TrEMBL record:
<dbReference type="InterPro" id="IPR007227">
    <property type="entry name" value="Cell_shape_determining_MreD"/>
</dbReference>
<keyword id="KW-0472">Membrane</keyword>
<dbReference type="Pfam" id="PF04093">
    <property type="entry name" value="MreD"/>
</dbReference>
<feature type="transmembrane region" description="Helical">
    <location>
        <begin position="142"/>
        <end position="165"/>
    </location>
</feature>
<dbReference type="GO" id="GO:0008360">
    <property type="term" value="P:regulation of cell shape"/>
</dbReference>
<feature type="transmembrane region" description="Helical">
    <location>
        <begin position="107"/>
        <end position="130"/>
    </location>
</feature>
<dbReference type="GO" id="GO:0005886">
    <property type="term" value="C:plasma membrane"/>
</dbReference>
<feature type="transmembrane region" description="Helical">
    <location>
        <begin position="67"/>
        <end position="87"/>
    </location>
</feature>
<feature type="transmembrane region" description="Helical">
    <location>
        <begin position="36"/>
        <end position="55"/>
    </location>
</feature>
<keyword id="KW-1003">Cell membrane</keyword>
<keyword id="KW-0133">Cell shape</keyword>
<protein>
    <submittedName>
        <fullName>Rod shape-determining protein MreD</fullName>
    </submittedName>
</protein>
<keyword id="KW-0812">Transmembrane</keyword>
<comment type="similarity">
    <text>Belongs to the MreD family.</text>
</comment>
<keyword id="KW-1133">Transmembrane helix</keyword>
Length: 178
């Protein structure tokens, strides 16, 4: 059904826009996002992937291959090497699938699942960089100065973008034939 819906165009374009906006917002708002000792990480790609899972209806978008592709692009563009994101994006999609089995698909359940996704994603990212000595920030400082601001920023993204993205998905699912 995915190939017969408008989502075959809307989803990849939205994913690309989110990839672009993650970098652009981080660059434009760098003085706000990265003001010592705090740092906020924009995760619009995660937001798009998580909300796509909830809004896809019975279309079944191939989220894992798209998550792997988005992770590869993110890694190659921002770090120049294949790294964590190629594994963490699909992991978050799978974790969203598992968590959504236990909760209804209400706004509060979705925001809670997104909250858990961000915590796991950012913490695994922190631990990986800590293990290979790229960062030497203590776990307490990470929680206060990185994770908390990142959660605040991305939960604001969720609240602001939830209804426009839901409307976009409803529009794209309205007429399944192109």
């Amino acid at each position: 059904m995915y190939r017969l819906s408008r989502l075959k165009y809307i989803f990849p374009i939205g994913l690309f826009v989110c990839l672009f906006l993650d970098g652009a917002l981080s660059h434009v708002w760098a003085p706000l996002f990265f003001s010592y000792p705090y740092s906020m990480v924009s995760e619009l790609v995660l937001l798009w992937l998580v909300l796509s899972y909830f809004f896809q209806d019975d279309i079944e978008i191939p989220l894992i291959p798209f998550a792997i592709a988005a992770g590869a692009v993110y890694d190659l563009y921002f770090s120049g090497i294949l790294g964590l994101y190629i594994f963490l994006y699909p992991l978050v999609v799978e974790m969203t699938k598992v968590l959504s089995r236990y909760f209804s698909s209400s706004f509060l359940s979705m925001i809670m699942i997104f909250f858990v996704d961000i915590v796991v994603f950012e913490t695994l990212n922190y631990w990986a960089y800590y293990l290979i000595d790229i960062t030497n920030v203590s776990f307490g400082d990470y929680l206060v100065y990185t994770l908390a601001p990142t959660l605040a920023l991305n939960l604001i993204y969720f609240v602001v973008l939830f209804w426009p993205i839901r409307a976009l998905y409803r529009w794209s699912l309205d007429d399944r034939q192109i």
